[in-house]
Predict the structure.
Amino acid sequence: MRRRRTARGSEPAAVCTFVLALALALALVLALALVLAGALLPRGGLRAAEGSREGLLREYRESTAVKNDKFGGVGESSADRLANFAAYYTPRALLSALLSATPCRAAAGCPAGAAAGRAVREFAGAGGRAFERSVLVRHGDGSLELITLYVARRSDDTAALVDSRGATYPGGLDDFRRHNALLGPEDLVLAPRDPTLVHGGGAVVAVSGHTPRNWLPWLIGASTAVMAAATALAAVRRRRSAPGPWGPASSRRAGRAADGR
Protein backbone atom coordinates (compact mmCIF):
# COMPACT_ATOMS: atom_id res chain seq x y z
CA MET A 1 0.00 0.00 0.00
CA ARG A 2 2.81 2.40 0.81
CA ARG A 3 4.40 1.86 -2.59
CA ARG A 4 1.09 2.47 -4.33
CA ARG A 5 0.54 5.70 -2.42
CA THR A 6 4.09 6.76 -3.21
CA ALA A 7 3.55 6.10 -6.93
CA ARG A 8 0.28 8.01 -6.91
CA GLY A 9 1.87 10.87 -5.03
CA SER A 10 4.70 11.12 -7.54
CA GLU A 11 2.35 11.69 -10.47
CA PRO A 12 1.36 15.28 -9.54
CA ALA A 13 5.02 16.07 -8.92
CA ALA A 14 5.97 14.77 -12.38
CA VAL A 15 3.16 16.73 -14.01
CA CYS A 16 4.13 19.86 -12.13
CA THR A 17 7.77 19.46 -13.16
CA PHE A 18 6.78 19.02 -16.81
CA VAL A 19 4.49 22.06 -16.79
CA LEU A 20 7.14 24.19 -15.13
CA ALA A 21 9.68 23.10 -17.74
CA LEU A 22 7.20 23.93 -20.51
CA ALA A 23 6.53 27.36 -19.00
CA LEU A 24 10.26 28.05 -18.85
CA ALA A 25 10.67 27.01 -22.48
CA LEU A 26 7.82 29.30 -23.58
CA ALA A 27 9.29 32.16 -21.58
CA LEU A 28 12.62 31.66 -23.37
CA VAL A 29 10.86 31.60 -26.74
CA LEU A 30 9.03 34.81 -25.84
CA ALA A 31 12.26 36.51 -24.84
CA LEU A 32 13.89 35.44 -28.12
CA ALA A 33 10.87 36.70 -30.10
CA LEU A 34 11.07 40.06 -28.36
CA VAL A 35 14.76 40.34 -29.19
CA LEU A 36 14.18 39.40 -32.84
CA ALA A 37 11.24 41.79 -33.13
CA GLY A 38 13.37 44.62 -31.85
CA ALA A 39 16.19 43.74 -34.22
CA LEU A 40 14.25 42.96 -37.39
CA LEU A 41 11.09 45.06 -37.44
CA PRO A 42 11.56 48.49 -39.02
CA ARG A 43 11.67 51.39 -36.61
CA GLY A 44 9.80 54.56 -37.45
CA GLY A 45 6.98 53.00 -39.50
CA LEU A 46 6.88 54.29 -43.08
CA ARG A 47 10.17 56.15 -42.70
CA ALA A 48 12.15 52.93 -42.37
CA ALA A 49 11.95 52.09 -46.08
CA GLU A 50 12.20 55.56 -47.58
CA GLY A 51 15.84 55.00 -48.48
CA SER A 52 14.85 52.37 -51.06
CA ARG A 53 12.54 54.73 -52.96
CA GLU A 54 15.21 55.88 -55.42
CA GLY A 55 16.47 52.34 -55.91
CA LEU A 56 13.00 51.06 -56.74
CA LEU A 57 12.41 53.85 -59.23
CA ARG A 58 15.77 53.10 -60.83
CA GLU A 59 14.78 49.43 -61.19
CA TYR A 60 11.58 50.52 -62.92
CA ARG A 61 13.42 52.81 -65.33
CA GLU A 62 15.82 50.02 -66.31
CA SER A 63 13.35 47.12 -66.57
CA THR A 64 11.77 46.07 -69.86
CA ALA A 65 9.49 43.49 -68.19
CA VAL A 66 7.16 45.51 -65.95
CA LYS A 67 3.70 43.99 -65.82
CA ASN A 68 0.92 46.48 -66.71
CA ASP A 69 3.57 49.07 -67.55
CA LYS A 70 2.31 52.53 -68.51
CA PHE A 71 5.44 53.02 -70.59
CA GLY A 72 5.72 49.60 -72.15
CA GLY A 73 6.86 50.91 -75.54
CA VAL A 74 9.53 53.31 -74.30
CA GLY A 75 12.48 51.11 -75.30
CA GLU A 76 13.41 47.56 -76.21
CA SER A 77 16.52 47.59 -74.05
CA SER A 78 17.41 49.03 -70.67
CA ALA A 79 19.73 51.55 -72.33
CA ASP A 80 17.00 52.76 -74.71
CA ARG A 81 14.51 52.99 -71.87
CA LEU A 82 16.88 55.01 -69.68
CA ALA A 83 17.68 57.35 -72.56
CA ASN A 84 14.01 57.96 -73.36
CA PHE A 85 13.09 58.63 -69.74
CA ALA A 86 16.05 61.01 -69.37
CA ALA A 87 14.94 62.92 -72.48
CA TYR A 88 11.37 63.51 -71.34
CA TYR A 89 11.19 63.19 -67.55
CA THR A 90 13.02 64.26 -64.47
CA PRO A 91 12.84 61.67 -61.64
CA ARG A 92 10.14 63.77 -59.93
CA ALA A 93 8.10 64.08 -63.13
CA LEU A 94 8.37 60.33 -63.73
CA LEU A 95 7.12 59.61 -60.22
CA SER A 96 4.18 61.93 -60.84
CA ALA A 97 3.36 60.27 -64.15
CA LEU A 98 3.49 56.82 -62.55
CA LEU A 99 1.63 57.45 -59.33
CA SER A 100 -0.71 60.42 -59.83
CA ALA A 101 -4.46 59.90 -59.43
CA THR A 102 -6.73 60.52 -62.40
CA PRO A 103 -10.54 60.76 -62.40
CA CYS A 104 -12.42 57.58 -63.25
CA ARG A 105 -14.65 57.65 -66.30
CA ALA A 106 -17.29 54.99 -66.69
CA ALA A 107 -16.93 55.14 -70.47
CA ALA A 108 -13.31 54.08 -70.06
CA GLY A 109 -14.23 51.13 -67.85
CA CYS A 110 -13.14 52.71 -64.58
CA PRO A 111 -13.32 51.27 -62.01
CA ALA A 112 -12.41 48.02 -63.73
CA GLY A 113 -14.36 45.06 -62.38
CA ALA A 114 -17.77 44.80 -60.78
CA ALA A 115 -16.46 44.30 -57.23
CA ALA A 116 -14.29 47.42 -57.29
CA GLY A 117 -17.02 49.52 -58.89
CA ARG A 118 -19.60 48.41 -56.34
CA ALA A 119 -17.25 49.12 -53.42
CA VAL A 120 -16.45 52.60 -54.76
CA ARG A 121 -20.13 53.45 -55.19
CA GLU A 122 -21.07 52.12 -51.76
CA PHE A 123 -18.40 54.20 -50.03
CA ALA A 124 -18.63 57.39 -52.09
CA GLY A 125 -22.43 57.52 -52.22
CA ALA A 126 -24.42 60.15 -54.10
CA GLY A 127 -22.29 63.06 -55.13
CA GLY A 128 -19.05 61.16 -54.58
CA ARG A 129 -16.21 60.75 -57.05
CA ALA A 130 -13.79 57.99 -57.99
CA PHE A 131 -10.14 58.16 -59.01
CA GLU A 132 -7.62 55.57 -60.05
CA ARG A 133 -3.90 55.47 -59.43
CA SER A 134 -1.12 52.99 -59.99
CA VAL A 135 1.43 51.91 -57.42
CA LEU A 136 4.68 50.19 -58.29
CA VAL A 137 5.28 46.77 -56.72
CA ARG A 138 8.48 44.76 -56.64
CA HIS A 139 7.41 41.26 -55.73
CA GLY A 140 9.44 38.94 -53.56
CA ASP A 141 10.73 37.13 -56.66
CA GLY A 142 12.12 40.40 -58.05
CA SER A 143 9.46 40.99 -60.72
CA LEU A 144 7.92 44.45 -61.15
CA GLU A 145 4.25 45.28 -61.60
CA LEU A 146 2.03 48.34 -61.65
CA ILE A 147 -1.21 47.59 -59.80
CA THR A 148 -4.26 49.84 -59.82
CA LEU A 149 -5.92 51.14 -56.68
CA TYR A 150 -9.02 53.32 -56.58
CA VAL A 151 -9.77 56.32 -54.41
CA ALA A 152 -13.42 56.73 -53.45
CA ARG A 153 -14.17 60.27 -52.25
CA ARG A 154 -17.40 61.38 -50.63
CA SER A 155 -18.90 64.82 -51.06
CA ASP A 156 -17.49 65.81 -47.64
CA ASP A 157 -13.96 64.86 -48.89
CA THR A 158 -13.56 61.79 -46.69
CA ALA A 159 -11.86 59.11 -48.76
CA ALA A 160 -10.90 55.44 -48.85
CA LEU A 161 -8.73 53.19 -50.96
CA VAL A 162 -10.39 50.36 -52.87
CA ASP A 163 -8.47 47.50 -54.46
CA SER A 164 -9.29 45.47 -57.55
CA ARG A 165 -11.15 42.87 -55.45
CA GLY A 166 -13.46 45.46 -53.93
CA ALA A 167 -11.84 45.56 -50.47
CA THR A 168 -12.12 49.02 -48.89
CA TYR A 169 -9.44 50.67 -46.75
CA PRO A 170 -10.65 53.89 -45.06
CA GLY A 171 -7.37 54.11 -43.12
CA GLY A 172 -5.24 54.79 -46.18
CA LEU A 173 -1.89 53.14 -46.85
CA ASP A 174 -1.41 51.75 -43.34
CA ASP A 175 -4.88 50.18 -43.45
CA PHE A 176 -4.14 48.69 -46.88
CA ARG A 177 -0.84 47.21 -45.68
CA ARG A 178 -2.43 45.63 -42.63
CA HIS A 179 -5.42 44.03 -44.33
CA ASN A 180 -4.94 43.56 -48.09
CA ALA A 181 -4.93 40.10 -49.64
CA LEU A 182 -2.99 41.14 -52.77
CA LEU A 183 0.54 41.52 -51.43
CA GLY A 184 2.82 40.02 -48.81
CA PRO A 185 5.50 41.31 -46.43
CA GLU A 186 8.17 40.27 -48.92
CA ASP A 187 6.79 42.64 -51.58
CA LEU A 188 7.93 46.26 -51.79
CA VAL A 189 5.52 49.03 -52.80
CA LEU A 190 6.31 52.50 -54.15
CA ALA A 191 3.30 54.70 -53.39
CA PRO A 192 2.28 58.12 -52.07
CA ARG A 193 2.43 58.33 -48.31
CA ASP A 194 -1.23 59.39 -48.41
CA PRO A 195 -2.68 57.68 -51.49
CA THR A 196 -6.16 59.09 -50.87
CA LEU A 197 -4.91 62.60 -51.75
CA VAL A 198 -5.78 63.19 -55.39
CA HIS A 199 -4.60 66.77 -55.89
CA GLY A 200 -1.11 68.16 -55.52
CA GLY A 201 2.11 66.41 -54.62
CA GLY A 202 2.94 64.71 -51.39
CA ALA A 203 5.72 62.43 -50.21
CA VAL A 204 6.36 59.11 -51.93
CA VAL A 205 7.49 56.15 -49.82
CA ALA A 206 8.73 52.61 -50.40
CA VAL A 207 7.18 50.21 -47.90
CA SER A 208 6.42 46.52 -47.56
CA GLY A 209 3.24 45.37 -49.25
CA HIS A 210 1.91 43.91 -46.02
CA THR A 211 2.81 44.42 -42.40
CA PRO A 212 4.25 41.26 -40.77
CA ARG A 213 1.91 39.29 -38.55
CA ASN A 214 2.48 40.17 -34.90
CA TRP A 215 2.83 36.95 -32.93
CA LEU A 216 3.94 38.62 -29.69
CA PRO A 217 0.45 38.90 -28.10
CA TRP A 218 -0.11 35.19 -28.77
CA LEU A 219 3.26 34.27 -27.24
CA ILE A 220 2.63 36.45 -24.23
CA GLY A 221 -0.85 35.00 -23.71
CA ALA A 222 0.31 31.40 -24.08
CA SER A 223 3.27 31.89 -21.75
CA THR A 224 1.09 33.59 -19.15
CA ALA A 225 -1.52 30.81 -19.27
CA VAL A 226 1.05 28.03 -18.95
CA MET A 227 2.91 29.75 -16.13
CA ALA A 228 -0.37 30.34 -14.28
CA ALA A 229 -1.27 26.66 -14.65
CA ALA A 230 2.17 25.63 -13.44
CA THR A 231 1.90 27.91 -10.42
CA ALA A 232 -1.53 26.49 -9.56
CA LEU A 233 -0.30 22.89 -9.84
CA ALA A 234 2.73 23.65 -7.71
CA ALA A 235 0.51 25.23 -5.04
CA VAL A 236 -1.79 22.19 -5.02
CA ARG A 237 1.18 19.86 -4.74
CA ARG A 238 2.62 21.79 -1.80
CA ARG A 239 -0.76 21.85 -0.09
CA ARG A 240 -1.16 18.09 -0.39
CA SER A 241 2.32 17.31 0.86
CA ALA A 242 2.34 19.77 3.78
CA PRO A 243 1.40 18.61 7.31
CA GLY A 244 -1.83 19.95 8.70
CA PRO A 245 -5.54 19.66 8.01
CA TRP A 246 -5.05 19.13 4.25
CA GLY A 247 -1.83 17.09 4.30
CA PRO A 248 -1.30 13.34 3.91
CA ALA A 249 -1.26 12.73 7.69
CA SER A 250 -4.77 14.09 8.08
CA SER A 251 -5.89 12.06 5.06
CA ARG A 252 -4.61 8.88 6.72
CA ARG A 253 -6.35 9.79 10.01
CA ALA A 254 -9.58 10.43 8.16
CA GLY A 255 -9.27 7.07 6.44
CA ARG A 256 -8.74 5.22 9.75
CA ALA A 257 -11.69 7.02 11.30
CA ALA A 258 -13.90 5.96 8.42
CA ASP A 259 -12.81 2.33 8.89
CA GLY A 260 -13.55 2.55 12.61
CA ARG A 261 -9.93 1.98 13.61
Summary: The first strand starts at residue 102 and ends at 103. The mean pLDDT is 79.
